[in-house]
Amino acid sequence: MSYDLEQENKEILARYKDLISNTYRTLDEENNKLIRKAFDIALDAHKEQRRKTGEPYIYHPIAVAKIVAKEIGLGATSIACALLHDVIEDSDYTYEDLKKIFGERIAVIVNGLTKISIMNHQNISVQSENYRKLLLTLSEDFRVILIKIADRLHNMRTLQSMAPDKQKKIASETVYIYAPLAHRLGLYNIKSELEDLSLKYNNPDVYNEITEKLELAKESRERYIEEFKNEVSDRLKDEGLKTTIKGRAKAISSI
Questions:
Q1: Does 84 have pLDDT greater than 90?
Q2: How confident is the model at residue 91 (pLDDT cuts 50, 70, 90)?
Q3: Which of the residues 71, 90, 97, 173 is marked catalytic?
Q4: Positive or negative CA dihedral for 179, 253, 206, 212?
Q5: Distance CA 210, CA 189 (A)
Q6: CA-to-CA distance for 189 and 175, rounded, in angstroms?
């Protein structure tokens, strides 16, 4: 299969710029240099690799870094680690190399992510409490778990390219391990999305039925939420209270 490498390189840089301009925190010059260095190493480490879709592998670490930067709201160290999260496992770069280039903290986080990834290839029952304990033991730094959740979220968002048996395995692991972890860490939007995507692959009939019904009732549901909010808001204004009211539909999996 031939690829338009020039076009791909343009797309890689565009995705990198999109990552840098979409961070929750403001990055200074030093932060930008660190992230750029991590991007350059990741680009070199994954240059020969492709995803199951045929896309350059580097798209995945960039997407994980964007989730870490924008949806979880972590800083430059975590963004750099997200870019590097598969480097030790997938290339000739070692823990010692990363320690020399980036210092011990980043090397420790990336190493923790590598250990979890290797553990996921072993046949440990994901339903067991031991699995959860093992996951937390491997995470010397709290950011390891947060980056791992971002990694799993991107894998779930792109799961359609996997074989059906792999889809079911990853979806089950997600609902048993990563959605509860996201919930405990206060990442409620990510927890809901992980559960919805798991349902999509574990129980597609139910998922599709609920999705269709939600789509059909979308306008009336949104109108109802708006009317309800206005009613409550007016009463609170009469009481002299300043408030903000938000409403949302329940997640597909919780329905």
A1: yes
A2: very high
A3: 90
A4: negative
A5: 19
A6: 14
Q: Report the number of secondary-structure helices (H) and strands (E) in the chain.
A: 14, 0
Q: How much of the chain exceeds pLDDT 90, in percent?
A: 69
pLDDT of residue 134: 67
Query: Does the active-site annotation cover 89?
Result: yes
DSSP bridge pairs for 50: 56
Q: pLDDT tens for residues 151-180? A: 999 999 999 989 999 999 999 989 988 999
pTM for the predicted model, two decimal places: 0.88
Structure tokens at 21: 């301009």
Catalytic residue among 11, 55, 89, 173: 89
* Amino acid symbol at 9: N
140 is catalytic: no
The whole-angstrom separation of Cα 107 and Cα 95 is 6
Please tell me the distance from the alpha carbon of residue 148 to that of residue 241, in angstroms, as a whole number: 42
CB-CB contact of 77 with 185 (8 Å): no
Q: Letter for the amino acid at 246? A: K
SS3 40: helix
**Based on the number of CB atoms within 10 Å of its own CB, is 63 exposed (0-12), middle (13-18) or buried (19 or more)?**
buried
